[in-house]
Amino acid sequence: MFRGLLLDLIGDIPIEYAFKAEGIFMTVPELSITLGGDIRRVAEVIRILAMNDINIRAVSYNEDGTLRMITDHTGAAITLLEKKGFEIEKEQVIAVEVPDDPGGLARVMDIFSRNNIEILHFYSSLDRDDRQAAVIFRMKDINSALKVAGQHHIISLANF
Question: Domain 30-90 maps to which CATH number in 3.30.1300.10, 3.40.190.10, 3.30.2130.10, 3.40.50.970?
Fold first, then answer.
């Protein structure tokens, strides 16, 4: 009963938190920078972060020239990059643990698909020691995604 009550309340609490069987399910901040397909600017962003001891935990770059990343120091990364003239968008995303085996990602995707969760984009970062992948999902309706993730015991990587 307690679990059901908490799940019913998810829509009324900040998106950074949602119930999960083992505790709190959290989102993580994703930084997006549109760089117009200029690889020199991509290299510059990555170099600025590296020179300031900011680690990129997951990264994606697409043909539209959008660099998306999760860093270990979001606030500092934003401040540094904005001082250098980059326009940063910050969105909340879900980082989940997915087994690094055939079908690991398919199981998570099936859960979101069966529950009509619209995924805007996703990318991964592999942890070879644990044979797990961290998959970063940006959803159209993050509150619904958090609720579904909690109901299906998808493992959150809040400290990703």
Answer: 3.30.2130.10
